[in-house]
Amino acid sequence: MIGHPSTAALILPGFDVPRAVQAVDAALRAKGYTRRDAPPPRGYHPEPGEWVGFVATAPREAEAALLLAEDLQTIFTVAVLVSRAMPEQPFLAWRRFMGANPVMKLFLAGKPQWKDGEDADLEVPWDVPYEPPMGIVGAEALGLPGRAGDLAGDFESVLRSYGEAVAHPLPHEEVVGWVRRDSRLAP
After folding, report:
1. Helix, strand or coil for residue 52?
2. Quick one: average pLDDT of 5-32?
3. Is a pLDDT exceeding 80 seen at residue 96?
4. 75-85 and 17-30 helices cross at what angle (nearest 10)?
5. Calpha distance 57→159 (Å, rounded)
6. Is residue 109 a contact partner of residue 87, using CB atoms and an 8 Å limit?
7. 13 closest CA partner among 103, 130, 121, 140
8. CA 123/CA 182 separation, integer angstroms
C-alpha cells in the first residue's frame, strides 16, 4: 500500500455526476450548508466541517458516480448525511490513508450497514458489522467490487487524492463544494 496517496470517495451506483451532486447537495443543505464550489482561498484554514469539497467524476469501469473527498476524516460522517437524505439508495463510501489498507462501507437507510476493512466507526455509536446483515445487499449486487482493496484497483483511472484531482482534472471532472451558512466563506 505504500506509495498510494491518501484518498476517500463516495461511490453512487446507477448515478451520473449531476444526479450524485444533487443528492449530496440535498443532504448538505438540510444540515445548514450552502453551495460554494471554489475551495477556500490559500492561507485560509477552515474549521473542521466548515467546507465540504469533492471532485465529481464518472469511472469508465462502472455505471456509477464517484466523488473524491477533500476531507478524508469526515467521509463516513458525510455518507451518513447523504444516506439519510436518500434512505432507499444503497451506496459505498471508501477511504485509504497512505501506507494503510483501505476501508469500505455500504450505506443504506441513513447508516452504514457493513464494512470491509478496519475503522473506528466514529460516525455511529456502534461497531459496524463486517458482513452484510440479512436482507442487505453486498457491493457486487450494485455492480461494484465487493472488497475495499479491489475497488482501488478497479477504479484506478479516477481514484486519486483530491489535491491531485483539483490540480490535474480529467476532462469530465467537476469540483463541487459546500460551506456552512455561518462561515465567513458563505456567499
Report:
1. strand
2. 95
3. yes
4. 90
5. 9
6. yes
7. 140
8. 23
Q: What percent of the chain has pLDDT over 90?
A: 75
Classify residue 143 as left (phi > 0), alpha (psi -120 to 50) or beta. left
Question: The whole model's pTM is what?
Answer: 0.93
Check residue 110 and give left, alpha or beta (phi > 0: left; psi -120 to 50: alpha).
Answer: left
3-state secondary structure of 62: coil
Give, as one character, the DSSP assignment of residue 69.
Answer: E
- Mean pLDDT, residues 44-48: 90
CA distances from 160 to 65, 76, 152 (A): 14, 18, 9
C-alpha cell at 130: 463486517
Strand-pair category, 51-57 with 103-108: unpaired
Give Cβ neighbours of residue 97 (< 8 Å, ≥ 6 apart): 6, 72
Residue corresponding to grid cell 489498507: 101
